[in-house]
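Data availability (excerpt). The following record was deposited with the supplementary files.
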Amino acid sequence: MNMKKILLISAVAAPAIFAATAYQNQVGFMTNGLKQIAVVDAAGKDVVFKDKDGNAALTVKAPEASMWKPANEEASLVDFSELKTPGTYQAYVGDEAVGHPIVIADNALEDVTKASIKFFYFQRSSTALEEEYAGKYARAMGTPDTAVMYHESTGKEDLTGTFNGAKGWYDAGDYGKYVVNSGISTYTLLQLYQQNKAYFDTLNLNIPESKNNVPDLLDEIRWNIEWMLTMQDDDGGVFHKLTTKQFAGMVLPEKATKQRYAIGKSVTATWDFVGVTALAADIYKKYDKEFAEKCAKAAADARWWARNNPYAFFTQPGDVGTGSYTDGNAVDEQIWGATELYRISQKPEFLEDMHQFLLTKTRRKLQGWQTVYALAAFTIATNPQIFDEADVDSAKILIFTLADSYIEQMNNGYGLAIDNSDFYWGSNSVVANKGMVLVHAYILTKEQKYLDAAQGILDYLLGRNPLDLSYLTGWGVNQVMKPHHRPSQGDTVEAPVPGMLVGGPNSSADDCAKKLIDKDAPAKSYYDNSCSYATNEVAINWNAPFAYLAGSLQAITATGKVYEIGSDTPEKYDVDKIPFVKANFSKQAEGNRLVFKNGAVQVERKMRDGTVRYFNLRGKNLK
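Predicted structure:
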């Protein structure tokens, strides 16, 4: 029985005695960073931090408790940042130990940074994972994707042909590869490198490419970009996804042997592709000029297709049941893609694409696969040497509108910039993306409050939460053990693949976690079981912002160096215009709305031909 349960039993047996408990980052605290724990039933009491020999190193009086609504619980936020001597400590209230061992180190976040990036290696398609790099999680090659067929939804005339769609990352707990979700995930990791080059230039991830002269982070990212390049059609457009027609069972990749297809061709996937390949052209030029130029040309080709097919939205075919990543609005993708293409070329036509839509008040939204305005803002705000003052100001307003709203949420006993509205599907990625916004606000201002708020979010993900859980597999005292992840369910290893951030509490879960929904405490609406895709699946777009957050905090706090705004002026690419073929999509969506139909919330989509179709919230076409 764990300490938390013992203390709760004691409280029931003797109501006059109030035993304190604490929630904390279970991995470690940076020597010179913010250090806080949330302590329950300790207001006004001394919290003593003792070293491994039992000597008191610091005493802090717990402040007045305050409510954190997502937990429906009051707590006192105890700050012990004064403790700056590396080592292992334990917090005490009276004679009782509370919480878990506290580790303080100069590189406290380095291992979780490595693990969260190494996750992408474990998600590699089209290759075996050798024991030298994967350890006990080694597996045979599956889904080679060297003979991918074209689904009729691609618009290809010859459906008997195949193409080589090798490499790339499995998207989530399944074996699909999706360009839209690869867009934000790959960009986030490229930004992590761009802003922390000195740190990541030497960070060894123990992957097959570790012995070359390219930073390991860039090698891992390239594995996915090379697959994305295979998804570009001859006319410049980009196929939406590469999957089987239906999800595979809970098996290892080598047993997922059904035919795989390129499915659909969409304007959102194409603009996402533009954003990633344009940024990659700048970053990889130092290491492989030919590859960088290939990326730049691919970005320009894709832009032409997207501009001439603005209503080519993806619609899930009736015979396909894999993830849809359906989006009926490409305004944000266009702004972001055009931003990256203009940054590397400074051609006026790309600036016109960017200016066709403005970063107005209604577009100041947290980033996610379906909403990428913030990605454009990150790039514009950190490149004032390229973009004009009005654009930079608009980008900064977007970032600070979000960041300051998060700061306002922090007046609670857990000290977290998280509120009730954050607990939906993939809530852990929601809060990790908040952390990315806060880090950008810090980079732009050097104001410590933003970095401290970001640290609080990382602490939440690693254990400062009412479930006393680290949501990163393989890390923490109380670890998630049963993620919805086919390789982890299909192998013979008891522990799941390490370094995976699970989706997290979801107050609207519609699967086996539904029985654990707590409407009064959404932060507790979570089920550590592989049956729960709604709370316990993993995904590349969830791990990417976690890696960005942990990696940025480690690099900034350990080195004391912050990314210098305007320091990366790319060499201009002379990207040429190419002829384009306008795609013929007879069923393009005019608009979506949520409706309540047949006892459930559905997406009603009005097609341009006047017909109406219905989808569930996962994008599956309903008959």
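Summary of structural features: The two ends are 50 Å apart (CA to CA).
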